[in-house]
Amino acid sequence: MRRIILAATMMVATLTGVMSTASATSRSHSATTVTLSLPKPFTPVAPAGGHDLYHCELLNPHAATDMMITSSTFNAGVLAQDHHAIAYLVPPSQVAQATALDGGGKGWTCFGGPGLLAKSIDNLGSAPWLAAWSPGHGPTVEPAGTGVSLPAGSLLILQIHFNLLVSHKPDQSSLTLTMQPAAGSGLVAMNTLLLPASLDIPCPAGITGKLCSRAASLADISKRFGASAANFDNMLEAVCHGGTVMAGTSATCTWPVGSTQYLWQVTPHMHLLGTSFTAVLNAGTSHAQTLVDVPSYDFHYQISHVETTPIRIQRGDTITTTCTFDPTLRQKLPYLKSLPPRYVLWADGSSDEMCLGIFGVTNLLVTPGTVLPAHQVSEVMWPSSIQAAASRISIMGVLSGTDVVGTAPRTLADIEALVKAGFCAP
Q1: Which end of the chain is more exposed for a tag (fewer CB within 10 A), N or C?
Q2: What would the DSSP string read from start to end of 406-426?
């Protein structure tokens, strides 16, 4: 799901010429169910030297008013090669840009994120998430009283990560959304909070190879996914550990919370070497609280862990995500054992790794009779000393519960400034 991320977190009836999406719609009372398919079968081909392709296509839900998505189901075209899928919001202000990327309905390659902020090293967060799927996840049903905001005049980008280690078949995946008009619904907007951790996993003892150094692995990542992918690894090290490389079989990062929110669910994401995952609120303090503990992570069974009662988080709190890995699995798993040994870093490939906590949060607690505005955008609540920098950094916007729509590209220098100022906890 990508290079994250530092950020993000989470329709006019017809836009003629934008796309030709096959769709089926049914209505039950005020709810609408729409199925959006890729316009035609797509045969993925990985770039030279790789085994993965991130492909994006534009979809149109044809919603004439502000809507709230209450459930989503990704219908995999070829399950063996679909690594993950994410639906991103394209607000009206970015429709022209997304349409140009789509190239007349052909779609585009979109490693990491959809590329709506093409100059940003963290473009995964350049568009809010509407829905996400990974193996074993099944349908996503938003908690009662909540929904994901789909403003009028918007389109969707469906990103599919194709894992081509074992299959190269034509794919015509689809996305089914159930939604209802936002006006009068009383539904609280669910946002997506993405908290990654930097990882540096050396080759196991006794295993050697050309890619068993960090430098060689970074160069290989740049070759396969572009220079921004390697830059992201270095940036994540700076944010999580002040630039010190912490090599080992675990990854951890502590993130500050920017504003008062309510945490509803946590979804861990790693790849094939992942073995366990934890997320802890205010770790190392007398009021530490484990949000989720997954002692036996399984890539093929990635589920969301729903809190019994939404947990209030606020500025001054921290969330620590921690993952553990077993690098010896590269020599054992059928998908990986034929590949050369490597120093494993964060990267977009199925044979690479990630450590990511995906959190579902709302800015308000659901209460009976709540009357909400059509759109909720919380105020950024960072200290005045870093307000200007924080407003340009997508992870800061996400932690504040804001959507980073139409903002200027973030830069590595912005985040380095926060690290040097001691704001990001090592």
Answers
A1: C
A2: SPPPP-HHHHHHHHHTT-S--
CB 370 within 8 A of CB 272: no
Answer whether residue 292 is part of any domain: yes
Task: Of 94-103, 105-114, 267-276, 402-411, give the lowest mean pLDDT range.
Answer: 402-411
pLDDT in tens, 53-68: 889 999 999 888 999 9
b/e 47-58 (16+ beta carbons within 10 angstroms → b): eeebbbbbbbbb
The dihedrals phi and psi of 300, each to the nearest 5 degrees, come to -85, 5
Q: Give yes or no: residues 202 and 185 share one domain.
A: no
Q: Is residue 411 part of a domain?
A: no
**Confidence label for 122 from pLDDT (cuts 50, 70 and 90):** very low
Q: Give the CA distances from residue 327 to residues 3, 132, 251, 302, 336, in Å, rounded to whole numbers and listed in that order.
A: 20, 27, 13, 20, 11
Give the model's pLDDT for residue 423: 45
The answer to whether 171 and 38 are in contact (CB under 8 A) is: yes
pLDDT tens across 217-227, in order? Answer: 999 998 888 88
Kindly report the CATH number assigned to the domain that includes residue 153. 2.60.120.310
Are residues 166 and 231 both part of a single domain?
Answer: no
Domain shared by 182 and 215, yes or no: no
The contacts of residue 338 (CB under 8 Å, 6+ apart) are none
Domain membership flag for residue 207: yes
For tokens 């990854």, what's the residue? 251
> Are 71 and 53 part of one and the same domain?
yes
DSSP secondary structure of 357-398 = EEEEEESS---TT----SS--PPP---GGGHHHHTT-HHHHH
Structural domain of residue 325, as residue ranges? 193-362
Top pLDDT among 388 and 199 is at 199
| Number of CB atoms found within 10 A of residue 118's CB | 13
CA distances from 317 to 83, 309, 360, 402 (A): 33, 18, 17, 17
Q: 5: cis peptide before it, omega within 30°?
A: yes
Whether residue 406 is contained in a domain is answered as no
Q: What does the alpha-carbon distance between residue 293 and residue 278 come to, in Å, rounded to a whole number?
A: 5
User: What is the value of pTM for the model shown?
Assistant: 0.76
Q: Classify the phi-psi angles of 210: left when phi > 0, otherwise alpha if psi is within -120 to 50, otherwise beta.
A: alpha
Residue located via tokens 């008009």? 181
Which of 189, 216, 238 is the C-terminal boundary of a domain?
Answer: 189
Domain total of the chain: 2
Q: What length is written for the chain?
A: 426
